[in-house]
């Protein structure tokens, strides 16, 4: 089976070292770390500049044996300075991350293409794969738009980052992945969700605070899993509103157990 990471958004209020501890308690193989503090969410830690936080993180990684499987989030906004990403890219390489998450909040397709290609080239010097995520409330909204950008940029270290919630809420369906191979993917962010798609104004709230663990909602995950590559890692990104008051380790145990149960039901374990 692929490696399975616990995404930082699943418990964004956890410090990086606490996230690693929770991931170990939940039986995960590693973590996905938010190393760029771009959302202003509670608990975000500036790992690039906070030496103590980096030292605490490394201590927990060494103690648990877990890996940093992916890092985020690199947003290619209209005014972004790619040089500003260099320290975070260096940190990603230092932590051993093989994948990163990149979004495209820019309405200018030519500028986005050029900046995406240039960003991928910077990541390539660190041997990092760039996962391009489409999000229905940003400029790059759909699977089709993401595939077009990947084709136009033509970077060998770039692939799709498929977030199952965003794929669903953008109107996507598993059958749209027919014909794709593992080389088309960077990695997959897996979660479940409620049956009813929220109003557009509520999509951000749902994405950040009200997802469900795999197998505990109403998405078409049983139709999706046969379409996914088994040689790309899975990131469990499922902030569960009902669990927000629980200790981090208990939250991770819930997500880990639910994920293993779901993967077993799909023949992935």
Structure description:
The chain has an eight-stranded parallel beta barrel, surrounded by four helices. The longest helix is centred in the last third of the chain and has 18 residues, at 248-265. It has one domain: Divalent-metal-dependent TIM barrel enzymes (TIM Barrel), CATH 3.20.20.150. The protein starts with a strand and ends with a helix. Helix 6 (164-169) links the parallel strand 6 (158-163) and strand 7. The chain is of the alpha/beta class and 269 residues long. It has helices spanning 16-25, 51-64, 86-94, 109-124, 143-153, 164-169, 203-209, 221-224, 248-265, and strands at residues 4-7, 30-34, 67-75, 99-103, 129-133, 158-163, 185-190, 234-236. Helix 1 crosses helix 9.
């Amino acid at each position: 089976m692929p490696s399975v990471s616990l995404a930082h958004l699943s418990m964004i209020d956890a410090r990086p070292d606490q996230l690693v501890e929770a991931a170990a308690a939940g039986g995960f193989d590693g973590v996905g770390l938010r190393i760029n503090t771009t959302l202003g969410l509670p608990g975000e830690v500036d790992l690039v500049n906070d030496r103590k936080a980096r030292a605490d993180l490394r201590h927990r990684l060494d103690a648990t044996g877990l890996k940093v499987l992916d890092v985020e989030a690199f947003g290619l906004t209209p005014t972004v300075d790619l040089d500003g990403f260099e320290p975070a890219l260096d940190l990603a390489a230092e932590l051993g991350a093989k994948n990163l998450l990149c979004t495209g909040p820019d309405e200018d397709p030519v500028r986005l293409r050029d900046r995406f290609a240039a960003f991928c080239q910077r990541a390539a010097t660190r041997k990092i794969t760039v996962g391009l995520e489409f999000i229905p409330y940003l400029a790059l909204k759909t699977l089709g738009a993401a595939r077009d950008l990947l084709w136009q940029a033509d970077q060998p270290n770039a692939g799709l980052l498929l977030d199952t919630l965003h794929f669903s809420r953008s109107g996507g369906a598993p059958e749209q992945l027919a014909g794709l191979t593992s080389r088309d993917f960077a990695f997959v962010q897996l979660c479940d969700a409620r049956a009813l798609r929220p109003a557009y104004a509520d999509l951000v709230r749902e994405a950040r605070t009200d997802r469900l663990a795999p197998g505990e909602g109403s998405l078409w995950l049983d139709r999706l899993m046969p379409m996914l590559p088994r040689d790309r890692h899975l990131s469990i990104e499922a902030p569960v509103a009902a669990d927000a008051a629980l200790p981090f380790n208990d939250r991770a145990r819930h997500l880990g157990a639910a994920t293993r149960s779901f993967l077993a039901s799909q023949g992935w374990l």
